[in-house]
Write a structure and sequence with these properties.
Layout (H helix, E strand, L loop, with lengths): L1 E5 L4 E5 L9 E2 L6 E3 L9 H6 L6 E6 L18 E2 L4 H8 L7 E8 L4 E2 L3 E2 L2 E2 L3 E2 L6 E6 L6
Parallel strand pairs: 3-5, 4-5
Antiparallel strand pairs: 1-2, 5-7, 6-12, 7-12, 8-11, 9-10
């Protein structure tokens, strides 16, 4: 909450900015991170600079051709994915991204013990043990995810 005080010489502004109580939330399309098909939480420079932690969420946009490249991409898990999974293909696998691309939210969380494989939306994910030092991610489809 902000307020002003008129002390006779000018106005002073005081208060505390509003913040998300648990982590960063970057839902502003202006702050959207545009991804390539091969981008993961661990290899994208823009994501690394922001230092996202468990509880943070941010908006991304994926190119329309990522699904076509699925044979060259790795994803581990189902609905919760490892931090070294292709973000775009994982979002398509989980149903938060259409085949022609678009924007969606990435939610960062703590790692899970095991990432299970599953065939969803025509894509077969892989399974692996979770890394205790890593992160997991899930996705939220936006109301209007068109480019």
């Amino acid at each position: 909450m902000y307020g002003t005080i008129n002390n006779g010489f000018g106005l002073e502004i005081y208060g505390v900015p509003c913040m998300e109580p648990e982590g960063q939330s970057l839902r502003d399309p202006e702050g959207k991170i545009t991804l390539t098909c091969h981008d993961t939480l661990t290899n994208n420079e823009d994501i690394q600079k922001k230092g996202f932690q468990a509880g943070d969420e941010f908006m991304v946009g994926c190119m329309e051709n990522c699904v076509k490249e699925m044979n060259d991409l790795n994803i581990y898990g189902s609905l919760e994915y490892s931090d070294d999974s292709s973000i775009c293909l994982s979002a398509f696998h989980g149903g938060s991204l259409d085949p022609d691309g678009g924007d969606f939210m990435v939610k960062v969380d703590k790692p899970v013990a095991t990432y299970e494989s599953e065939n969803r939306n025509g894509v077969m994910s892989k399974s692996k043990e979770g890394d205790p030092a890593g992160k997991s991610m899930s996705f939220e489809k936006l109301e209007d995810s068109s480019k």
